[in-house]
Amino acid sequence: KLENCKGRVVTIFLDGLHHLQKFVDHNHSPQASSAEEIHPYIPSHNALRVKIKCARRTEIPPQLKTLDEINIPDSLHSTLGGDLFLVRDSIINQE
Question: What are the extents of the domains in the chain?
Answer without folding.
Answer: 1-59
